[in-house]
Amino acid sequence: MGADVLVIGGGNAALCAALMAREAGASVLLLEAAPREWRGGNSAHTRNLRCMHDAPQDVLVDAYPEEEYWQDLLKVTAGKTDEALARLVIRASSSCRDWMRQHGVRFQPPLSGALHVARTNAFFMGGGKALVNAYYRSAERLGVQVRYQAPVSRIELRDGRFVAAWVGDERLTAGACVLAAGGFESNREWLREAWGCNARGEWPADNFLIRGTRFNQGTLLRHLIDDHQADAIGDPTQAHMVAIDARAPLYDGGICTRIDCVSLGVVVNREAQRFYDEGEDFWPKRYAIWGRLVAQQPGQIAWSIIDSQAVGRFMPPVFPGTQADTLPALARQLGLDEAQFMQTLDAYNAACRPGHFDHTVLDDCRTEGLAPAKTHWARPIVKPPFYGYALKPGVTFTYLGLRTDATAAVRFGGQPSANLFVAGEMMAGNVLGQGYTAGVGMSIGTAFGRIAGQRAASAAQRRESAHA
């Protein structure tokens, strides 16, 4: 046997599992599909962890109690979440930072300003790349074996128990296994299959950009569901999907491709019409619904329109937007129908009601008699120069996954496996049926990665004792 515990994946959840299993005394082999320079999956693009806390704590200000965290999650998922597992994640988020620090993760002082998350989220010093590197250094120091460019194509099971994994023609056995190999967001064919062809004859998935790693093909996820009939959960079209700069690269654009001015202006589609309330809620609670909204528009494209009043109130994009001194000129530069564009903007401007504008709170600046309404931060777009940013759907990770419980065990016909566990994107759909709130993906990966690693070590050790 190569190791007590086999961990398949190389991102945050996989690393948490590997570290916990090793700390519990198990020998561990981690298989990362990517080359070393691309290791870490989507975790390398993350920035923070959403944390529950009942009072100010080191890098977190004020308090963010369990119930508020739960209500935030409940709101963005519209109830499509397993409350017991969600609360498990929330509680675990309050006590994991000391363990993370022990493995080299550093946090930066509280942030203030337009992100509204100094109270709710702990930011990694150096971002996700630094976190991933710290975990790999710690893993190697503790004796975790790491193999790169080692994609697992299939696994062997016997009566719901893990037996072996295959990397090419190589068969690797272990006493227990943790699956943490990500979703299927990089698998264009699967995305096409999930999203299908719409009424306009378009294949929406053909216009999706992938914000993270190209290595998340969903190979093992499909293998477990189709070939082993593992219990699945989630809708294959639901994902962490952000409206990003349409000029972003196909893969690995990461955080710098985000366009954060949506809530401070209006968004129009190819037909120059608005289609959703831009001011529904704070941006960290709503940014991850806009990719899906844009995906449902003609051509899977839209434009965020702001004026100079909004400049300086949001994280500026890496690349400048299209700029014009008049709205008609902006419409022409964006290639939008000028008459329809002006009709949309004039109707919006006329519907804005006076209020006290404050982008740091849910203010009273709203529209009246307009559909869709803009419920907060609605100010007439009148101050030149004007800016337009083209948006496309950017998929971060998919929510279809393996059903699990508080033990992180993979389930077959409702029965938990004795030695096969799951963490991270491969099970995030248990908590995230739809929607997203900033930092919760890392909370899920950290909580279930640690549980899976600990359980896998125990399962492997029990098996060894039984064979002794």
From TrEMBL:
Keyword Oxidoreductase recorded:
yes
The record places domain FAD-dependent oxidoreductase 2 FAD-binding at 4-432
Cofactor dependency: FAD
Question: Which keywords belong to this entry?
Answer: FAD, Flavoprotein, Oxidoreductase
Name of a matching Pfam family: FAD_binding_2
Q: Which InterPro entries match?
A: CobZ, FAD-dep_OxRdtase_2_FAD-bd, FAD-oxidoreductase_2, FAD/NAD-bd_sf, Succ_DH/fumarate_Rdtase_cat_sf
Q: Does this UniProt record's set of keywords contain Transmembrane?
A: no
Stated name of the protein: FAD-dependent tricarballylate dehydrogenase TcuA
Q: Which organism is it from?
A: Pseudaquabacterium inlustre
